[in-house]
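Let's do one together. I've listed all components of the complex below, 790 residues spread over two lines.
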Amino acid sequence: MTVVIDRTQPPKPAPAGKGPVSAAARVRAAGGPGGGLYKPRTPIYPKLVHGRWRAIKWAVLIATLVIYYVTPWIRWSRPGNLPDQAVLVDFAGRRFYVFDIQLWPQEVHFITGLLVIAALALFLVTALFGRLWCGYSCPQTVWTDLFIYVERLFEGDRNARMRLDTAPWSLSKAWRKVGKHAVWLGIAFATGGAWIFYFHDAPSLLRDFWSGQGPTTGYVFCALLTFTTYVFAGMMREQVCVYMCPWPRIQGAMLDTHSLQVTYRHDRGEPRGAHKKGADWAGRGDCVDCNQCVTACPMGIDIRDGSQLECINCGLCIDACDEVMIKVGRPAGLIAYDTDAAVEARAAGRPALYRLVRPRTVFYALALGAVSALMIWGLSTRTTLDLHVTRDRNPVFVRLHDGAVRNGYTLKVANRSFQSEQMTIALKGQPAAVLKMPGSSETAKAITVEVPANEVRAVRVFVTLPPQVLSAPNLPATFVVRSSREEARTATTFLSGAANSQ
Amino acid sequence: MSKRETDEVTGVETTGHEWDGIRELDNPLPRWWLYVFYAGIAVAAVYWVLMPAWPGVSGYTKGMLGQSDRADVVRELQGLKQLRGAQAAKLQKASLEEIEADPELQAYAQAIGQSVFGDNCATCHGTGGVGTKGYANLRDDVWLWGGSLSDIHRTIEVGIRSDHPQTRFSQMPAFGRDQMLTSAQISDLTEYVVMLSRRKADAAAVARAAPTYAEQCAACHGVEGLGDQTKGAPNLTDQEWLYGSSRDDIRGQIWAGKGGVMPSWKTRFDPETLKALAVYIHANAGGQ
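Okay, and this is what the predicted structure of the assembly comes out as:
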């Protein structure tokens, strides 16, 4: 694959009077030896654009924020004393509620499966359409976008912000800065505040939080997320993506020349240059070098330099460029979601081919399908009844006066349903066996115990076998526990003590 | 080292250390790292003020928050007592039968009993309660002094051959050592006891021992050898032997008449603990 832009060549000197516009270019210009051990952050002032992708970004921003803030307040009726919060991670009760599903710590593999699905979906989407996650739905992007919106309300758009930052302190500058940071902190606090509702009953936590009765973890995590939101979305912004996030590095392995990415179609744009109104377009590219794509970029890069680690694929430069193209009377789409392969093909005069079906996309899709099917199968065949059997080790067996032998077992009967259940415990495989619970005077072929909803009950069971059936040291047996709807079996052994008679 | 070496590529001084041609650059610490270090010192200073920190001659600095692990333990124990309050009060009032009839109370009593058993009884009877030679098995259904709940409670309370005035007491005579019977008579009696436990025995010896058994043993062990729990006399017909089942073991027991001591626990446990222990042992035993 040919390099789209040769970065080994020194960058063209900027036109006189304009100066480098992209933050990256400013840093490059300011760099060099003697620049200090630590590179300061160069502020980026993204300009507001209007267009299709900006509209989609606003829609995704609103949708994700609504989901984040509203989810913990959805009520979901569950019987008895069980929480009526639709989505609740109950660490104290060790339960994870998602609508009609409630997971126990023993079922953490479902969460693992969900994370695997999320990872594979990310791989597939990235291979097909590039870093859509980064550009639209990553919390870092969403909150940064929201914070820039607030910044614009107080300080105006790009040029006004740049002027304000270089201006000496004044009352106007002070209230704008204070106001911006106050609203940022408010949003950050609301973010941290909403987070903790996922872990406690939201209405009662809200009350307890303000009356000072909330759990310490609530205050700590609220403060922590307030801090990180304020710092990450307000101060660090693109630095989080460029220096802290591992995904930009990993995504290089997902992308290939057929992946859709925000692309400057250099075949159409070059050679670039300023264009006078009414001048001829022949012999030159469509790019009028207006730098609107650069001023709109929240990452501070120039998309015309080609595919870059910093690019989050948000498409704001597309909107900025399209506006200009329409103004100068050229077709939109000089910057567009396109593939490197298509640009190369067009540059060589061949028709552009888009290949969605590629070995890597097929593999990601198959893996995604397989894991999803496994998860759906697991969730649909998930039982609400579980039985775990531990045989007593001390004493291993007890011989009674008539030669009969007794073994003790501890049964853990888990009732994952929302109803209290009468469970019948029986032993299969040893028809002569008699069951008894310690402390009970009754012996029977089966024992009935009540297991409360959403709980595990430990049941001690003594099994006695008469001397005439004690033919071998180990006798196979299976505990069967039956609820009103389901049945669980667990195999165990009965030790008769035949090998070591007293 | 007098003169510091400078790396050509980066222009940074090296530490002078070299490993297989690789030299270490002497870059300054990152600024933020230094800040974290200072912040750590500041946190330590705050900690000294807030928390117990410095030892003194007769005490220590208590700190402004009044944190004390010892006080925490006391508070937690009090909380535990309060948590158990209702059940503990119930246990205090309930009779043994009432405890067994109430599943919740029984579970509570069993939990207490199990922990008390592990601390006090397991030394002799084993953690599993199956005993060993000379120490009774508490898990089966063979009992010297009775296996009902009240019998067990009584045995724990007064002990066996203990210093309690009402102790359970039995004495197997030392027929051989005290020269009450001859060695030959004891050998014959051994065969007789083997016969009683439904094993093959020397018929002639059994016939010779029959009058001796009737005269010396039947009073306690019964004519048929079934024993007597009111006298603590073991049943000789079952397969359970406190001092062993072999001919040597049986002969030794007729000769020397060993009898173990079980202490009285009345003064060591409060009445509730005693009840809980009896309930635990009874629940895990093999019947009666």
